[in-house]
Design brief:
The protein has helices at about 20-35, 50-60, 65-80, 140-150, and strands at about 10, 40-45, 90-95, 100-110, 115, 120-125, 130-135, 155-160, 165-174. The chain is α+β, with helices and mostly antiparallel strands. The chain has a four-stranded mixed sheet, with helices on one face. The protein has a three-stranded antiparallel sheet with strand order 3-4-7, covered by helices on one side. The radius of gyration is 19 Å and the shape is globular. The relative contact order is 0.21.
Length: about 170
């Protein structure tokens, strides 16, 4: 909610914007802009484009954080909808996609499964058949600036980590 009689600051931390494709990101950011007053600040973070091998190794992290996060959706579907996925029978496969400028995450079944989501759907999942779970879009400073401009903001400040792998920006509502 915006307060018209004072300056507002909105935070959208991390790289959550990277979960939206470019069109969805633009729509979301335009909605944010409409909720703000001229001159209000918007602070958000971006995961920047980088060597695909670095991205690949990040999503194949040794602690399997991304694998567990991806499999968690199957556990939730089982728990909340009464489905019967076998989450531990899936490989986690992240792949850099040049065209989308980001990483696609898939879960690939190790075995044939008949999946039942009661009252909704039953389907066969063959061994080595995959489920696309998430996208992780990456940005350049130029793409972020275009996104800011198209959604009604102007880039005011930019901060990078020491490797220039991540970027935080402060945008001002035009």
């Amino acid at each position: 909610r915006s307060f018209p009689d004072r300056r507002n600051v909105t935070l959208f931390l991390g790289n959550t914007i990277g979960n939206f494709d470019r069109v969805q990101a633009g729509l979301f950011l335009s909605d944010v802009r409409r909720a703000l007053n001229k001159g209000d600040r918007f602070f958000l973070g971006f995961d920047l484009l980088k060597d695909p091998e670095i991205l690949q190794s990040a999503y194949y992290d040794p602690e399997n954080h991304f694998a567990r996060l991806s499999k968690n959706i199957l556990y939730r579907i089982n728990r909340e909808l009464g489905a019967n996925f076998a989450p531990e029978s899936f490989y986690y496969v992240p792949t850099y996609n040049v065209r989308m400028q980001g990483v696609e995450s898939h879960l690939v079944s190790e075995v044939d499964q008949t999946v039942v989501i009661p009252g909704t759907v039953t389907f066969e999942l063959k061994s080595f058949e995959g489920i696309h779970t998430t996208n992780h879009f990456k940005y350049s400073p130029q793409i972020a600036a275009q996104l800011a401009d198209r959604s009604g903001f102007q880039v005011d400040e930019t901060y990078y980590d020491s490797e220039k792998w991540f970027m935080d920006q402060v945008w001002v509502a035009k």
